[in-house]
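Re: the request from the purification team.
They wanted to know what the chain is likely to look like in 3D before they choose a buffer screen. I agreed to run a prediction and write the result into the notebook, where they can find it.
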Amino acid sequence: MLALKQLIKKVFVFYNYFCFVLVFLLLFPFIFILSRKKTWYAHLNKIRKFWAFLGCLLSGIFMEGEWESDLDLEAKSSRSFIFCSNHMSYLDTLVMSQIARGPFFYMGKKSLERNPILRIFFKTVDIAFERESKTDSYRAFKLAGQYLMEGRSLVIFPEGSISSHPPKLRSFKSGAFKLAIEKGIPIIPVSILNSWDTFYGNGQNGAKPGIIHYFVHNPIYPENFSIGGEEDLKKKVFSIIQHKLNEYSESLPSHDHWSPEPSGLMN
């Protein structure tokens, strides 16, 4: 019985990938057209949201979230945000694509430009860069600052890769918090509570349909932090997300901690 259960979970991984590739191919004509002009990028993000929603729907994966405050009014005023989330599954990008308000972009490693599906986004709305290159990292974060000032929101996973021991977070990198203070952009902490239990890592241990729960915390405004105070801001966001994960985890039975491969999406 246990072997059969594991086989079903393995098969579901392939089914999950099939659903998202199928939806991408169906939407590709629209994605391609909207990627031709910068003025159409906002619509490209709407297509990305729909892709995430429909792919999850076909896979039997649903999302249920709670918001501490309503951001729609601020988002409509072209206010940009930095959405800062924990990272415990490849599904996290799909969750964040649903959560992000207004035009948004991700940052990720340069190799994502060679990904047959993601490359069109990293050649247009998103930013790819070499992690090991200080020059390229500087260029990327300077460009991210420009995007933020134009009214686009940044979606970021400050752990830099998928946590190997959920719900325990990896240490955060400082880039997003430095950007928030320098550009005066509010940070919105997001706790994705159980995506790892549905589809952990890249799915090498199997996956299953289910409901992904998340919690969107109140914005943290950088006016309360001085230039150079990114460490304090980072600790505050880390504490908020980790506390919510602990709170959720303590309400559940214990579970196995699988060992994932790193994700390309990062800060």
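For the purification team: The first strand starts at residue 61 and ends at 67.
Please add any questions underneath this entry.
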